Amino acid sequence: MIFEQVSRLFEDGWKHPEKKRPKIKRIYVIDLPDHLNESYQEYKDMLARQNGSSGVNEQLVFHGTTRTCSLGEDISDLCEKVTCILCCILKTSFLVSKSGSAGRTFKRFGPGIYTSSVSSKADDYTQAPWFSDDRIIIVARVALGKSSIHYRTTEYLTEPPIGYDSILGEVGINLNYNEQVLFKDEAIRPAYIVVYERPTAAPAPPAPRPAPQPTRPNPATTTTSSSSSSGCTIM
Ligand SMILES: [Zn+2]
């Protein structure tokens, strides 16, 4: 069920006409430590009090990142490398303080956490490891609250304008595909990872896709406390 729902979200979000549809191989459910679930829920409760019950505006969005370890290759254990962006995010969730530290020096709306509802845009930020063609996109839950809508690049932003909780970069002038920017760690949590492969230049004939069951990363490793992973240096 989860596989169907998340793969449909991923496939429906694949918007770039010039990019061939990828092959989804596996989908993992992220089992977060309790304290990360609790702080996210507290943030949503705060938004509901502040904006009214319709003002939480929770969505599932995509975040592409580099894959360097074997996570997703048939194993579900997080690695211990402090340079592994993917495993760092899955251990600590996203951190605003790490914005741009993975080499994305251009930050269209300032130093926040960037996501998109367009999976093929998140794909631009993925990188496969040397030993595999499989890439990973994180599907994240975000509590957008009230979004300030921006059509133009505004790099000087350090937080949403007063009265808003997030930035929504909209299509029209500087953007071809949307992006959501969060400025608080507790406004976003990784929910799933999608392991997929870009099609090769010569497209294979369509074939019925097997329907693997969603798997869950080993709780013994995904519940690693943030203190033990504080050595993570990049995001
Ligand atoms: Zn790793």
From TrEMBL:
<dbReference type="Pfam" id="PF00644">
    <property type="entry name" value="PARP"/>
</dbReference>
<feature type="compositionally biased region" description="Low complexity">
    <location>
        <begin position="218"/>
        <end position="235"/>
    </location>
</feature>
<feature type="domain" description="PARP catalytic">
    <location>
        <begin position="1"/>
        <end position="205"/>
    </location>
</feature>
<protein>
    <recommendedName>
        <fullName>Poly [ADP-ribose] polymerase</fullName>
        <ecNumber>2.4.2.-</ecNumber>
    </recommendedName>
</protein>
<dbReference type="GO" id="GO:0005634">
    <property type="term" value="C:nucleus"/>
</dbReference>
<keyword id="KW-0808">Transferase</keyword>
<dbReference type="InterPro" id="IPR012317">
    <property type="entry name" value="Poly(ADP-ribose)pol_cat_dom"/>
</dbReference>
<keyword id="KW-0328">Glycosyltransferase</keyword>
<dbReference type="GO" id="GO:0003950">
    <property type="term" value="F:NAD+ poly-ADP-ribosyltransferase activity"/>
</dbReference>
<feature type="compositionally biased region" description="Pro residues">
    <location>
        <begin position="202"/>
        <end position="217"/>
    </location>
</feature>
<dbReference type="GO" id="GO:1990404">
    <property type="term" value="F:NAD+-protein mono-ADP-ribosyltransferase activity"/>
</dbReference>
<dbReference type="InterPro" id="IPR051712">
    <property type="entry name" value="ARTD-AVP"/>
</dbReference>
<keyword id="KW-0520">NAD</keyword>
<feature type="region of interest" description="Disordered">
    <location>
        <begin position="201"/>
        <end position="235"/>
    </location>
</feature>
